Amino acid sequence: MCGIVGFTGKQSAAPILLDGLKKLEYRGYDSAGIAVMDQAQIEVVKVTGRIANLCEKTKDGEAVPGTCGIGHTRWATHGAPTEENAHPHLSNDGRFAVVHNGIIENYIALREELIKDGYHFESETDTEVIVHLIEMYYEGDMREALIRATNRLRGSYALGVICTEEPGKIYAVREASPLILGVGVGENFFASDVTALVNYTRNVIYLEDGEFAELTEESVRIFDVLGKTIDKKVTRILWDVQAAEKGGYEHFMLKEIMEQPGAVKATIAPRIRDGKVFFEELNITQDDLKKVRKIVITACGSAYYAGCSGKYVIEKLARIPVEVELASELRYSDPLIDEHTLLIVISQSGETADTIAAMKECKARGARTLAIVNVVGSTVATLADDTVYTWAGPEIAVATTKGFTTQVAVLYLLAMHFADKLGRLQEKEAHLLKVLESLPRKIQQAIDMNAQIPELAKKYHSSKSLFFIGRNTDYAIALEGALKMKEISYLHAESYAAGELKHGTIALIEDHQPVIAVCCNPSIMEKTLSNIVEVKSRGAEVLALTFRNNQKILSAADDFLFIPEVDPVFSAVVEIIPLQLLAYYVAKENGCDIDKPKNLAKSVTVE
Ligand code: AGP
């Protein structure tokens, strides 16, 4: 995720900006840059790759004079990680420079309008429209220009802006993206998070959505959307630096679990327009879809389980047959794939070796390829005929959480899109769109309604093994729940389709054997209930994942994880939340290295 910093004071700005950017490195980034103002001139320096490259290019900042500036680490979203796309972006007249964290949803329309008005663009980013809008609206008053420019923007943004007409001033604007002001003595700062500030000051002001700030070395002025000055409380930061890097969370995994409402929203919201699911990035026409005889989904690990849950939804809504194949198997299986196959490739990193190999194999057989990827510009994204990005932001914990839920969210959107194109949605469409839009809220509720999980972890953490059961999409989530558990807590955890128990696994059920039963699909609830009764009568302890008012399950099981009521077509993305939290707290009880589990890598780039 991008990070921004700003400084104004008496000292040289560049070294302070570089230091702040280093503190933001943990957020993940692929390019970086600074803009420093000196004698009413702005100098911009940008690099791809590490901050170390920026330090080298600027001689640790010494080569860029000036006491006021802004800096940025970029996690590529719109456009590849290149110097042109790196921030800061300059206005055509060179008077303004902007750094931005967030996504401008209406940038295409604004870009077209600005091009018509004679502005030229140097980058492919959504951000560049902002600097041209500011130039267009500036008539001698930055406050006015910022209000008019941001009034035109839809989406999320934390902005840092400098202007040669106003030396010594830095401006910050916040809308749905974190931004904090640092109040120093004879110097002031802003940054995406406190990590970048605590070396200089522990006195901070948290900006809220719709607020603007104008900082000079001696003053901090904050104003609202109408330009009215407002007073804000200064807060003293007491955290240690390490904690701040994780946003106050003990582990990146917990932070990433908590980020899921926002990540799923960022994935879904821009793709719903005028009562339809709309993919700007897809070139699959109705005719192309009509020629598709089957969809094959391929991936590894959690991404494969995302595919398993997507299969049910695509088949249900679009009525296209879907096969889900492990990439490591597909690549060596002499697959029955041809030009009538649509291959959906899912990968958070976009660099998983087996996934890439399976993709190449299927491409060679004529399949059209559609990638669902988080990392912009990654190999899978580049190889695919069509790429849909999950806007999860960087995922640092090895165990995927927001990477998984945003993949499932994209599969839901694709199911709707395909069904619509094939004329198979009709009157269901409006209702399903509402459900899709409610998912971020439902995920938040699933986080909030499970405060009992740390206590449950104390009960289950010493188990020798855990069985997870479920049916249909509940089964897909049981698979992912078991994987989360084993990879971070090192407990033996296995998932079974509940109906398969009697075909063998039930032999393993004995007194106090924990069974985690996922029962969130009303149409097959009775069936899973029978399985709960079967294992309970053999002495199992059942931890059921279900709704709060599900009396039948509540009276059959021993312990509970809850989700809010949500249409079963799209409930899987909510169901996984309590299982992620359970795995997290069990691993914590067991004293495991949660963010970096033994033997595992974030990106498996070898076979
Ligand atoms: C999940 O928590 C894993 N660490 C792992 O299974 C992962 O999902 C798999 O390696 C695939 O990675 P990718 O999405 O980057 O391709």
Summarize the entry for a quick read.
With 607 residues, the protein is of the alpha/beta class. The protein is built from 20 helices and 27 strands. 36% of the residues lie in helices and 23% in strands.
Mean pLDDT: 93
Strand order of the largest sheet: 3-2-4-1-10-9-11-15
Fraction of residues in β-strands: 15-25%
CATH superfamily of the largest domain: Aminohydrolase, N-terminal nucleophile (Ntn) domain
Total number of helical segments?
Answer: 20
Q: Roughly how much helix do the residues carry, as a percent range?
A: 25-40%
The figure for the number of domains is: 3
The number of E-state strands comes to: 27
What overall form do the CA principal axes indicate?
globular
Biggest sheet features: 8 strands, antiparallel
Proper CATH architecture of the largest domain: 4-Layer Sandwich
Which runs of at least 5 residues are low in confidence (pLDDT < 50)?
A: none
How would you portray this structure in words?
- The chain folds into 3 domains: 3-238, Glutamine Phosphoribosylpyrophosphate, subunit 1, domain 1 (4-Layer Sandwich), CATH 3.60.20; 245-448, 3-Layer(aba) Sandwich (Rossmann fold); 453-589, Glucose-6-phosphate isomerase like protein, domain 1 (Rossmann fold).
- The strands form 5 sheets. Strands 3-2-4-1-10-9-11-15 form an 8-stranded antiparallel β-sheet, with helices on one face. The protein has a 7-stranded antiparallel β-sheet with strand order 5-6-7-8-12-13-14, covered by helices on one side. The protein has a 5-stranded parallel β-sheet with strand order 19-18-20-21-22, with helices on both faces.
- The longest helix has 21 residues, at 428-448.
- The radius of gyration is 26 Å and the shape is globular.
- It is built from 20 helices and 27 strands.
- The chain has 607 residues and is α/β, with parallel strands linked by helices.
- Strand 16 and strand 17 form a beta hairpin.
- The chain binds 2-deoxy-2-amino glucitol-6-phosphate (AGP).
- 2-deoxy-2-amino glucitol-6-phosphate binds at residues 300-303, 347-349, 352, 355, 398-400, 487, 600, 603-604.
